[in-house]
Amino acid sequence: MYKRVRLKDTVEVPPRHLAEVTPDLVKRLLQDKLEGRMDEDVGSVVTVTEVHDIGEGAVIPNRPGVYYEAEFDAVTFDPEMQEVVDGEIVEVVSFGAFVGIGPVDGLLHVSQISDEYLAFDEENQQLASRESNRTLGVGDAVRARIVTKSIDERNPRESKIGLTAKQPGLGKHGWLREDRKEEQAAEGE
Questions:
Q1: How far apart are CA 163 and CA 80, in angstroms?
Q2: Which residues contact 32 (CB under 8 A, 6 or more apart)?
Q3: How far is CA 6 from CA 16, 48, 52, 53, 179, in A?
Q4: What are residue 5's DSSP bridge partners?
Q5: Under a CB-based contact definition with an 8 Å cutoff, are residues 138 and 90 in contact?
Q6: 105 with 161: CB under 8 angstroms?
Q7: Which residues contact 127 (CB under 8 A, 6 or more apart)?
Q8: Are residues 113 and 103 in contact, defined by beta-carbon separation less than 8 angstroms?
Q9: H or E, element range at 34
Q10: What is the pLDDT along the chain (189 residues), one digit of tens a residue?
Q11: Considering all CA atoms of the chain, what is the largest pairwise distance in Å, rounded to the nearest integer?
Q12: What's the CA gap between 9 and 11, in Å, rounded?
């Protein structure tokens, strides 16, 4: 999910900073340019951690800055298919729950939460089961598995990650604790 990668990119240094082209300046400019950007190959850039090499710089006609190619380390977030993730419910809607898993949210569709029917309780912003009285709401911690991934590099907010919690060991953390206690009690009988 999180990776440290070595990347190369070009950064524009504005004229007012040309006398101070340092690794710290280039790092700040790269952070401004890249943080939050999605890339199909490396995922979402979380932060630039260290600049290793700064090229000579190139002037482009009719452009005010100087362009430097830099080699640097970055921390990226790249969710893998079938990866198990922990996250927190950030929004509940009639068709499921959005789970914050790092810098992006994944959708836990209502059909992928439980075998029980879950009704949307708009007033309390939660999904609730009438059979077991279990609820899932904003702030709840969940464990899920990534089952679909569609990255939109041009518009990262349109990227989609689909999750499931319909297998043993997945679901709301509170439900998992309840299930373990029930299993332990059954074994002790």
A1: 12
A2: none
A3: 28, 10, 9, 11, 43
A4: 74
A5: yes
A6: yes
A7: 92, 96, 97, 110, 113, 118, 119, 120, 121, 135, 136, 137
A8: no
A9: helix 23-34
A10: 788 999 999 999 999 998 889 999 999 999 999 988 877 788 888 899 999 999 999 999 999 999 999 999 999 988 889 999 999 999 999 999 999 997 788 999 999 999 899 999 999 999 999 888 899 999 999 999 999 988 766 766 677 899 999 999 999 999 999 888 888 888 876
A11: 82
A12: 7
Residue indicated by tokens 């006398």: 19
DSSP 120-183: EETTTTEEEETTT--EEETT-EEEEEEEEEE--SS-GGG-EEEEE--STT-EEHHHHHHHHHHH
The residue count of the chain comes to: 189
- Contact (CB, 8 A) for 136 and 87: no
Q: DSSP letters of 83-105?
A: -EEEEEEEEEETTEEEEEETTEE
Indicate the DSSP class of residue 55. Answer: -
